[in-house]
Design brief:
33% of the residues lie in helices and 19% in strands. The protein contains 9 helices and 15 strands. The two termini are 29 Å apart. Helix 4 runs parallel beside helix 5, helix 5 (170-180) crosses helix 6 (222-235) and helix 7 (251-260) crosses helix 9. With 308 residues, it is an alpha/beta fold. It has one domain: Alpha-Beta Barrel (TIM Barrel). The chain is globular, with a radius of gyration of 18 Å. The strands form 4 sheets. It has a 7-stranded parallel beta sheet. The structure holds succinic acid. Succinic acid binds next to loops. Residues 21, 45, 70-72, 126, 128-131, 192-193, 215 line the site of succinic acid. FMN binds at residues 20, 44-45, 126, 163, 191, 218, 246-247, 268-269. One of its GO terms (molecular function) is dihydroorotate dehydrogenase (fumarate) activity. This is Dihydroorotate dehydrogenase. It is an enzyme of class 1 (oxidoreductase).
Length: 308
């Protein structure tokens, strides 16, 4: 059975990878991801300068998922650029490099340096971090997103995709898809956490930043993630792949993301809980489902969700 998947002109040994932010900040974490069973991996969303991020506690496991307000802690752009250009990665066309500059200028500076480097992988531009006090999630501002993408593609010519926040309104799906379809994007990642939720335990919030408000991940978000994967799969050009992210705990969740049209599937909360062994388990569980249904390849069923 073959779990290979494609985005643009890249073929991945299987459709699984980490969600940016989960176990991908330090050199050691990235090395574990690079050598695990996932088909690809992505670096922590970085800013030009290193950041401490928000005060702790800023990530809490919940019964049905997680809440976080990390605030983009990262080792800075130079560290991640060095990492993706080191001898183990420099010829890896399948590594994803996540950027989350605090301004358009910062993103353009990082993209300029990547453009001028030997980087051969794919950039995921994060337009959806909900956790920086005072900074809106870019992709909730449709006009701004268009301006950002115009600037980005005027400079950057290597493969690039964007990480989107969840949308909840049919008109918003259509408005965002109309914008995205104008640009030479290679993929979109759906979804980032459902931002600014509140979890209460014993009459108290559970994370410190922003009065306890944080992004929700895990099982709570799976139906929203699947809806976003499905809508963008239907509305975007065929050459823009969808990376599904949200609520993946087992092989059936991976299968459902693929059924909705995802080409790759990112694992966040469950990777945090289980470590990279999760990829081995998910591969076995996905294979079992495919075997039962007589599918030999992901392309035998990808996108083929049935409607009533
Ligand atoms: C964070 O560092 O706050 C998480 C990143 C994100 O949600 O995009």
């Amino acid at each position: 059975m073959n779990l290979e998947s494609k985005i643009y002109d890249r073929t991945f040994a299987n459709c699984l990878m980490n969600a940016s932010g989960v176990k991908c900040m330090t050199f050691d974490e990235l090395e574990v991801l690079r050598t695990a069973e996932n088909g690809s991996f992505i670096t922590k969303s970085c800013t030009l300068q290193p950041r401490e991020g928000n005060p702790s506690p800023r990530y809490i496991d919940l019964k049905l998922g997680s809440i976080n307000s990390m605030g983009l802690p990262n080792l800075g752009f130079d560290f991640y650029l060095d990492y993706v250009l080191n001898e183990n990665n420099r010829n890896n066309k399948n590594v994803f490099f996540s950027l989350a500059g605090l301004s358009l200028e910062e993103n353009m500076e990082m993209l300029k340096q990547i453009q001028n480097s030997d980087f051969k992988g794919l950039v995921e531009l994060n337009l959806s971090c909900p956790n920086i006090p005072g900074k809106p999630q870019t992709a909730y501002d449709f006009d701004r997103t268009k301006v950002v993408l115009e600037e980005v593609f005027s400079l950057y010519k290597k493969p690039l995709g964007v990480k989107l926040p969840p949308y909840f309104d049919m008109v918003h799906f259509e408005m965002m898809a109309e914008i995205l379809n104008k640009f030479p994007l290679k993929f979109v990642t759906c979804i980032n956490s459902i931002g600014n939720a509140l979890f209460i335990d014993n009459e108290t919030v559970v994370i410190k930043p922003k009065g306890g408000f944080g992004g929700i991940g895990g099982a709570y978000v799976k139906p929203t993630a699947l809806a976003n994967v499905r809508m963008f799969y239907k509305l975007l050009r065929n050459d823009i792949a969808i990376i599904g992210c949200g609520g993946v705990e087992n092989g059936r969740d991976v299968f459902e993301h693929l059924l909705c049209g995802a080409s790759m599937v990112q694992v966040g909360t469950q990777l945090m809980k289980e470590g990279t062994d999760v990829f081995h388990r998910l591969i076995l569980e996905l294979k079992e489902i495919m075997q039962t249904k007589g599918y030999k390849n992901i392309e035998d069923f990808r996108g083929s969700l049935k409607e009533l």
